[in-house]
Amino acid sequence: MFSKILIANRGEIACRIIRTARKMGVKTVAVYSDADARSLHVEMADEAVHIGPSPASESYLRGDKIIEAAKQTGAQAIHPGYGFLSENPDFVDAVTSAGLVFIGPSAASIRAMGLKDAAKRLMEKAGVPVVPGYHGEAQEIVVLASKAREIGYPVLIKARAGGGGKGMRRVDNPDDFPEALSGARREAKAAFGDDRVLVEKYVDKPRHIECQVFGDNFGNVVHLFERDCSAQRRHQKVIEEAPAPGMTAEMRDAMTDAAVKAAKAISYSGAGTIEFIVDASDGLRPDRFWFMEMNTRLQVEHPVTEMVAGVDLVEWQLRIAAGEKLPASQGDLEITGHAFEARIYAEDPAKDFLPATGTLRHLRFSDASLDGSSMRVETGVRQGDAISPYYDPMIAKLVVHGADRQSALSALSDALENSEIAGSTTNIGFLAALAHDPDFIAGDVDTDLIARKQDTLVKGEVPGVEIIAQALLAASGASHVAQSSDPWDLAIGYSHFHPIWRRATVRFGGEETVGTVRQRHDGRFEVRPAGSDSSVVISADHLYRKAAWPGHVTIFANGSAFGFTTVDPFAKAAEAEGAQASMRAPMPGMVKLVRAAKGDHVTKGQPLLVLEAMKMEHTIAAQHDGTIAEIAAEGAQVDDGTVLVRFEETAT
Ligand code: ADP
Hints:
eight-stranded antiparallel beta sheet, alpha+beta, Rossmann fold, Dna Ligase, domain 1, D-amino Acid Aminotransferase, Chain A, domain 1
């Protein structure tokens, strides 16, 4: 076994790898960028080497600096995690030529599976079923459009270099094909530097079921069953589970056989995943699944497999890279119980899952496990850390295991509802709603479920009167005062003899509520929103959990976090001016397309420009009707908060 390894990654996966290495007595070296100087993975590793500025292209993607760091610290092997350099065969070659071990497959295996089109051709030859479609060399729009017609609409355009759902467009009819193609190409070019695409049949009622495979350097390959990753938004997984609901022995045999065949076709070594798309319009049928792609690395969702198979996949990776044989044979492996993983992201489901940034002012994960279930939190952040715009905005993965699907799902709901995150918008409320969705509960999940039910799943984030009252109470400082033993606190206005009303103002999503708060003789609080003659009475032992810092209070209730701005009445006047007159960039990025010009009269909801940020395109639509006074230029680089569109002042 190695005595020291370097982890060429960051965040939760770097921390995850460090934990296993430590358990095995292997020392670890972390690498970090400027933005990560004080991050958790750096703190956890035995040593850490700074490799460059914050943008990944100048740090985590700099193979040369990473190899240099490994040599300098005496690490014998490099674990790439997922993302970044994990599927870059040139990096593998460089690692090997530097006399180090790459903890993963050979460069040749990665190359064979690296491009979706070539991989499909290879799999077809190996006898693995592939999705009907065009994965040839031609890229002319006329050829692609006629192939699409032959395949039959709906079709899916995919970047051949694709990953993470980028550069992918579903097209329902021929008229939309040209626009979808150019969008897919732009996104693919930006994300992968390769704008070539393939066209596939869009599978009906698609389910994403993937098989975990593992190979060693002696020609052995085993599978560790399947994971169902059909719960997706924008083609990206949000909740994964194992085993797949409704899986039959016949279907599992067919899928895992194909997966092992695929891995053997490329003499695969290490952890890999064969992703299949399944047509579930008629249940799970062994003749209705097709190879989509192979991920030649550890997957984000690998913990669900670990939970049901009772193995540590990172340990397996290290053992195999160190030249050992597979730790188990196929016959030794079996599934016990059921596991779910939910990915908590800093993102705004209400804004079409736009990635968010922010400082995690408050971070607490549920530590409660329901009867017989167990839970694991995989995270790379601590309270006080920032989610920066530079990297993937994932905050944590909650992984639960139960005796069966139902108990695992209750444990998941419970874990989500009892997690508290403030300081950034997150998708926790959305994940909890998904875990409660009747189709999800029934295991009837296809990849379009979230998009179809987006309105119901994303709704429910508007605070009711009870929550607003709790926010007003927190903003007034009254609950703090009541719980304080400092006589000065008591002196500022709360007395059992002369209850004094205090004013507070809170704002939620542009909606402002002014209210008055007092503590009554019986010790309970009375909150009265302005203009209302009824009040909400709250007793001291019914205060909701909250996180507060200057100018802000977040109330945690019903599994959601409601972030309120607390308004200083003096700052208000200054802010009101111009608030409605301009639209600002929600995150740093680049203006890709501008669809309106100065002087145009636009209506609410009309797309004005496309912002490319975090390698994805985000359409910015008018928030209200108005005439454009100024609009950002195409190609402009913008920061978080930069004015993108300014409207002409309207006479009121
Ligand atoms: P990426 O590498 O960008 O993640 P994939 O090829 O793995 O792209 O596909 C991502 C997701 O897109 C799949 O999980 C599935 O939900 C959907 N998808 C892919 N191919 C098809 C298809 N032919 N029909 C329907 N949905 C598909």
